[in-house]
Every structure is written in C-alpha cells, then in structure tokens.
C-alpha cells in the first residue's frame, strides 16, 4: 500500500521544490525552528516524499522543454510568415514586422532537417577482406 503524504509533508515538499532549501521548506511547512533541520533531513529520506518531489520536478522540467511537435509548429509559423519581431523605428517608436527572408529560409532548412528531407551523400571507397574459418572465427584485413 502506497503511503500518502500528510498535509504538512506536502507543504514541505512543495516548498522544497520551490526553494531547494530543506530547512527553510520545513519552517514554511510549519515545523518548529528547533526541529526543522532534523525533520527536513528525515523527510528527504522518506521514499514516498522523495518520489513525490521527483515526480513534481519531472513535470516542471517537461513543461519547460519544447518537444519536437512544438519546435516544428514554431518553425512552420516562421516559414509561413506568421511570426513577427519588434523593431525600433527612426522616431523611437516600436513596430511589429514580419521576419525577413533569411529567417524564413533558415526555418525552412531546420524544419526540413527535423523531417530528414535532406540527405548528405558520401561515397566511401575501400577494400576489406574478410575470411571466416570453419570454427566460426573471422579475420578482417584491410
């Protein structure tokens, strides 16, 4: 049976995730100043609390990292001219303008690479003599 976190343990874990400071997290969770350091260490060594912290950190990291689909969608929007950038005008004002041709061409190139649309062809020449003995051993000579 999987053990559930108490409300105080969950507050501790959530604060620890925010700050990375176990003692401070224990204080914020409501543990006393006298025992905060010891309790913090104990909590970090409890498998079910550690599992909760690891799971939450993985979710946070996953949300911050773009996946392949998101990258392809962005490159496609740049390629199609849907993305703009803010530039300063001569009068000190700012204006949104479409990305230039070089940016769109680079997006097309990168998108093509993600889809393996381009193949670098290389010709490699050479001789390789391989002999296989009756006992299954082989010898490669170049």
Automatic annotation (TrEMBL):
Transmembrane segments: none annotated. It comes from the Bacteria. It holds the Pfam family Terminase_2. PANTHER family: TERMINASE SMALL SUBUNIT, TERMINASE SMALL SUBUNIT-RELATED. This is Terminase small subunit. Keywords: Viral genome packaging, Viral release from host cell. The keyword Cell division does not apply.
């Amino acid at each position: 049976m999987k053990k559930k976190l108490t409300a105080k343990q969950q507050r501790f874990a959530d604060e620890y995730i925010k700050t990375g400071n176990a003692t401070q997290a224990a204080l914020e969770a409501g543990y006393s100043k006298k025992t905060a350091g010891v309790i913090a260490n104990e909590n970090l060594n409890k498998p079910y609390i550690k599992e909760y912290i690891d799971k939450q950190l993985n979710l946070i990291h996953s949300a911050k990292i773009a996946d392949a689909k998101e990258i392809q969608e962005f490159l496609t929007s740049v390629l199609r001219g849907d993305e703009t950038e803010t530039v300063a005008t001569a009068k000190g004002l700012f204006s949104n303008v479409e990305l230039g041709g070089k940016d769109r061409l680079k997006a097309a190139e990168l998108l093509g690479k993600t889809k393996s649309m381009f193949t670098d062809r290389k010709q490699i020449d050479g001789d390789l003599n391989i002999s296989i003995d009756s006992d299954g051993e082989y010898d490669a000579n170049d």
